[in-house]
C-alpha cells in the first residue's frame, strides 16, 4: 500500500492537523477484532454494532471524549479448571476507537445476544442550522439611521 507524505501541506495550512492525522491513520492496518458494523438508522441517527460474544456488561467500557469513541473489552482471567482442546472463541481484550463527526453524540448502548449496540445522534445547534433570510423589496423599507451633527 502506498504511503502519502503530507508534510508539504503542513507548510501552507493552519488548523488541519486532525485531518492529516486521520488520513495518516487510514494507511495503518486496523485490527480486525472484534468485528463491527456502522449503520445509518435515520436522517440524523447512527448505530455501531460490535460482536462481543463472551463479554458481559461489566467487562465492557464505552467512553466518548473529544470526538473519539473508545470501546474497551477486558475479561477477568479465569482459572482453567478444564482442558480446552480447541479455542475458536476469542476472549482476548480489545480496544477499538471511532472518530466521531462534529455534533455526533452517544445516546445509549445495549448488549443483547452477544452484540453491543451503540446508538448515536447528530444534534446540530440552532446557530449552525441553515436559516432563510427574508428579502425586502426596494430601499424605502430600509431603516433610516438618524443622527445629530454637532
What does the model show?
- This protein is mostly beta strands and 150 residues long.
- The protein has two domains: 1-30, no CATH class; 33-124, Immunoglobulin-like (Sandwich).
- Helix content is 10%, strand content 31%.
- It contains two helices and seven strands, in the order ααβββββββ.
- The strands form two sheets. It has a four-stranded antiparallel sheet, with no helix packed on it. The protein has a three-stranded antiparallel sheet with strand order 3-4-5, with no helix packed on it.
- Strand 6 and strand 7 (115-122) form a beta hairpin.
- The chain is elongated.
- It starts with 6 loop residues before the first helix and ends in a 28-residue tail after the last strand.
- The relative contact order is 0.17.
- The mean pLDDT is 78.
Instruction: Please state the oligomeric state of the protein chains shown.
Output: single chain
Classify the secondary structure makeup into a structural class.
Answer: mainly beta
The coarse silhouette is: elongated
Largest sheet: 4 strands, antiparallel
Number of helices: 2
Give the terminus-to-terminus CA distance.
Answer: 74 Å
CATH architecture of the largest domain: Sandwich
CATH class of the largest domain: Mainly Beta
Low-pLDDT segments, ≥5 res:
none
| Count of strand segments | 7
Strand content: 25-35%
Helix content percent band: 10-25%
Number of domains: 2
Overall average residue pLDDT: 78
CATH topology title of the largest domain:
Immunoglobulin-like
Radius of gyration: 25 Å
The helix/strand order is HHEEEEEEE
Major sheet: order of its strands?
1-2-7-6
Family: Belongs to the small heat shock protein (HSP20) family.
Pfam families: HSP20
InterPro entries: A-crystallin/Hsp20_dom (IPR002068), ACD_IbpA/B (IPR037913), HSP20-like_chaperone (IPR008978)
Keywords: Stress response
